Amino acid sequence: MARQLEPAQENPFIELGRLLSEESYKRDRKEIRLDNIVIDILRKDDEQVVIGEVKKSSRFEKSAMMQLAFYLSRIRDMGVEAKGELLFPKERKRIDVTLSPEIENELKSAEEDIRKIVSCESPPEARKNRYCKSCGYNEFCWA
Ligand code: SF4
């Protein structure tokens, strides 16, 4: 800011810092967009940053957990250690998620698998499974 130089305001690192340092930061903030992720809930418990992911049901608990772990790892890349909360309001259920070495290994291996698929000339043949009905890519696979 000295010499009238200001950082790019749309930079996700700066946006996260701004959100976490605002004076009015008292209650949960909802729907925060940072780079390529959308955080449902962001708050501070004392000095601990907490990000929450809200789901309708715990049916796909494992994938929800991995999604939240990915967010935690992206936020850590931005210099902030946070903990995660997976929330299922209809079931009155909450699961704490942290970046344990096991989860980090799973994330790494999922990312490697994704990279392999992305580098293929054509996508693997679609196979109907129990997730297809509610999958956002349904039309691409089965239209
Ligand atoms: S609809 Fe979704 S879950 Fe089903 S095969 Fe396609 S991408 Fe996979």
Question: Overview of this structure, please?
Answer:
Helix content is 36%, strand content 24%. The protein has 143 residues and is α+β, with helices and mostly antiparallel strands. The protein has a domain of 84 residues: Lambda Exonuclease, Chain A (Alpha-Beta Complex). A five-stranded mixed sheet has the order 1-2-3-4-5, covered by helices on one side. Helix 2 packs across helix 3. The site of iron/sulfur cluster has 9 residues, from helix 4.
Features of the shown structure:
5 strands, 143 residues, five-stranded mixed beta sheet, Lambda Exonuclease, Chain A, alpha+beta, binds iron/sulfur cluster, globular, 36% helix, 4 helices, single chain
Write the layout of secondary structure elements.
Layout: H1 12-21, E1 29-34, E2 37-45, E3 48-54, H2 61-77, E4 82-88, E5 93-97, H3 101-119, H4 138-142
Parallel strand pairs: 3-4
Antiparallel strand pairs: 1-2, 2-3, 4-5
Helix pairs in contact: 2-3
The protein binds iron/sulfur cluster.
Residues 126-127, 129, 131-132, 135, 137-138, 141 line the site of iron/sulfur cluster (SF4).
